[in-house]
Amino acid sequence: MSKNQVWDGEFDVIVVGSGAGAMAGAYSAAKRGLKTVVVEKTKLLGGASAYAGASCWLPASQVQERFAVEDSSTEALTYLTSLLGDHEVERREAFVKTAPEFVAEFEEDPAIEFKFIAFPDYFAGPGRKDVGRSVMPEDLPREQIGDLADIVRPRVEEDRHGNGHEDGPLTAGQALIGRLLLAYTNTGNGAVCLETALTELITENDKVVGIVVQGPEGVQRLHAEVGVILGAGGFEANNEMRQEFGAPGAAEWTMAPDGANIGTGIRAAEAVGGVVDLMDEAWWAPGSVQPSGQTAFALGFRGGIWVDTNGQRFANESLPYDQMGRVLANAAAQRIPSWFIFDSKFGGDMPGIQRPMNTSPEEHLAAGTWVKADTLAELSELTNLPADALNASVERFNGFAASGVDVDFHRGEDAYDLFFADPSYGPNPALVAIEQGPYYAARMVLADLGTKGGLRVDKDSRVLTKDGNAIEGLYAVGNTSASFSGRFYPGPGTPLGSAMVFAYRAVKSMIPAKVS
Predict the structure, then answer these.
(1) pTM for this structure?
(2) How confident is the model at residue 355 (pLDDT cuts 50, 70, 90)?
(3) Which domains does the chain have, with CATH numbers?
(4) Which residues are CB-neighbours of 315 under 8 A, at least 6 positions away?
(5) Do β-strands 9-16 and 36-39 pair in parallel, antiparallel, or remain unpaired?
(6) How far is CA 13 from the centre of its chain?
(7) What are the tens digits of pLDDT across the range 270-283?
């Protein structure tokens, strides 16, 4: 450290951001006796991770073993290799090797406990698991976390309406962030700075040694003796960056929390020599347009069909959400926006598992984000869809429902297609005829769960320069880094699982620097 440098805070490790990867890195560091601080620019912890269903794709862990689910690292690696080919082989192998170790160490802490949840891997192929490889946090009783719950971001349905947590335990993403926060706090080595934004990284002799922040105390310079971990999300809420790098969709359609994920960490690292990759990529998802103009992440359709602006069906509606997002993006002019067509078999609500944002069908209808009609002909007028094409699409699909075979898009032939289906319908429960008026159409667009392009990193999450050299003292995890999975979304919880594992690896790689 330069004798001329004046610091406003001294730490071993500084973590920027507070999603699952950031909090896993912070806990890993604090547990090892490193004085750690989490710097979060909003007033709540968790970022988009707190909104998540909290599946964490973590192969071959003791959780699978505890729940009598057969899996192995070899099978997981076979599956990933079948998808990813030669993309990021070293990081892929490091992830698969480290996932069981990560889970075992974290579950040693009484604040952290996972359970297995069946959720199929997203692609057919060698090594695939029809029950998946996802683990989830156990619900976190409010009495266990106490007042710390007040700084955990609530569910998206509540947060976007300015509300706090509902009564009862923290669940899903809130449970994940809450458990990591509780474990972190219990180490006695961790601090949290809310409403504190990174503005730049500080370097000395080509090493990152600290950060400049803007917070309640004004501009401050914080020193990091060992390292800085950037886990501040991607740039999904920054339309200028999306346009610069050709990332489809729009900031208003993303699932990022308001005021977050505008690429600050990525830009700060670029300024000190870091390079980026996959910047046109995201974790895509269908988005049901809300009256506010934002979207609700929609998945698990149990009925209905999706038609483009020509009134024609264009995909297997039961595809995993990232794959459906790619279908939308590949013909954006005809498919964004488009319409999801369904009938009244489901009580006037959309036949799927989705994030409703506390928006009722009546509110949708009043806002025009949904339309309702007694006949398909009237529905076509309200949506400006060609009547003949819409009627033909529905008739053809109903024929598939009767036969049980979707000749056009093979809906219901994959384990994932059937995962959400209602078995009371047949002969193929993923194919439910549209025949019971009134009929509905929901406006749909391309949403995302976050961008997945970011800083290039090595297997220990060290940020790389254009020459492939690691920038000393600087690490990036989660959506601040370019995903090891490239242009694929292998299974439910890949973003969360990989973010935490690579944050854990980052901290382990720092330890020799501290010891020396």
Answers:
(1) 0.97
(2) low
(3) 9-280+452-515 (3.50.50.60), 285-448 (3.90.700.10)
(4) 306, 324, 327, 409
(5) parallel
(6) 25
(7) 999 999 999 999 99
